[in-house]
Specification:
By secondary structure, the protein is of the alpha+beta class. About 25% of the residues lie in helices and about 20% in strands. The protein is built from four helices and five strands, in the order βαααβββαβ. Helix 4 links the parallel strand 4 and strand 5. The longest helix is centred in the last third of the chain and has 15 residues. The protein is globular.
Length: about 170
């Protein structure tokens, strides 16, 4: 489709109307259909039975219930990227702590940005940075007072799905 990033990108939240686009992006070759961006969202009950099918069902249920889950980037009407962002209480894992007695932030005004997906053919062209800006704009329009994220150093061997520090 595209070998380089088009200049005329648009961004839309994942909602019932855009679910088919989200589904198409995640199920495309190389897409993250193995996770459906559920690892941080899954409740303990959901975690006991997580596989591709139940992860997809869990995400779909959230989207159809109107839970903010993130935004899609579009080029020429086709979905070309994803950023997971939503109110912190909609994520199960960022609301837990390994430190006994640690305070848990559950303020709906704080949003968490947990993941990006950019197809391999579009990596290195700035799409993740554009998604980041659009995700922050989206969170702001939805009432977020703050956004937390979990980027890693550029030379990190893993967990790069949360973005790299220079982007932020």
């Amino acid at each position: 489709m595209y070998d380089q990033l088009p200049a005329d990108l648009t961004f839309r939240p994942v909602e019932a109307a855009t679910w088919p686009d989200f589904e198409r992006l995640f199920q495309a070759r190389g897409g993250p259909s193995y996770c459906w961006c559920m690892p941080y969202r899954a409740t303990p009950e959901e975690n006991r039975r997580l596989d591709r099918t139940t992860r997809k069902e869990g995400m779909r249920a959230r989207v159809m219930a109107g839970v903010p889950v993130g935004i899609l980037a579009y080029a020429g009407g086709e979905p070309v990227g994803w950023c997971s962002i939503g109110p912190r209480p909609t994520f199960a894992r960022p609301n837990t702590s390994a430190v006994p007695g640690a305070a848990r932030a559950v303020d709906a005004l704080v949003w968490a940005l947990t993941c990006f997906y950019v197809p391999r053919r579009l990596r290195g062209g700035g799409l993740a940075s554009r998604l980041l800006r659009a995700a922050l704009d989206y969170a702001r329009t939805q009432g977020a007072a703050a956004v937390e994220a979990y980027p890693v150093d550029p030379d990190s061997p893993s967990y790069r799905f949360g973005g790299i520090r220079p982007m932020f």
